[in-house]
Amino acid sequence: MQENPDTRGVKRSKFDIYFLLFPIALTVILDEWLKAKALLYFPEETFLTSPHLIDFAVHKNFGLAFDLPFRHELVVLVSIVIGLVLIRVVSKTILTKPHVAFACLMILIGAAGNLFDRLIYGFTVDYLIFFGRSAINFSDLVIVLGVIALLLLTSRKKNIDKTVPIV
């Protein structure tokens, strides 16, 4: 039996949508819990005397990614704009390209966690320090995984288009 490529007539059940909400809520709760614990129990990054491969310490990121210095208001504004764009992409692709929507949702979830930090603390709480230099948190990992998934999905689509003969 041939599948119907037109998904406009196919409606997602409420279960499908709520099924997505559980991992989203779990990710956000885990992220904020880890950051709160880091602020309570981990030392400041400046107290590290000899850096290891991985250290657990609090790094306060007042800038953008990689500590690029930008005004707090600009970082919040850019985060909100990117978030709105991602929400639009997710809403447009959830039925036709659910994998793309999920990758964008991962990026959105991670960005929301970091935006929450900026609004509450005035900085992003990073607590995994690699080689005494690079500081990240769970939100950053979720963002990176979402970006990698999005890149793989879009590059796979281009490769598929190249291999399909035009008749």
Please outline the helices and strands:
Layout: H1 14-41, E1 54-61, H2 72-93, H3 98-120, E2 124-130, E3 134-136, H4 138-163
Antiparallel strand pairs: 1-2, 2-3
Can you put this structure into words, describing what you see?
It is a single chain. This protein has a domain at 97-161. Helices cover 59% and strands 11% of the residues. The protein is built from four helices and three strands. It has helices spanning 14-41, 72-93, 98-120, 138-163, and strands spanning 54-61, 124-130, 134-136. It has a three-stranded antiparallel beta sheet with strand order 1-2-3. The model has no long low-confidence stretch (mean pLDDT 81).
In brief, what are we looking at here?
With 167 residues, this protein is mainly alpha-helical. It has helices at residues 14-41, 72-93, 98-120, 138-163; strands at residues 54-61, 124-130, 134-136. A 3-stranded antiparallel beta sheet has the order 1-2-3.
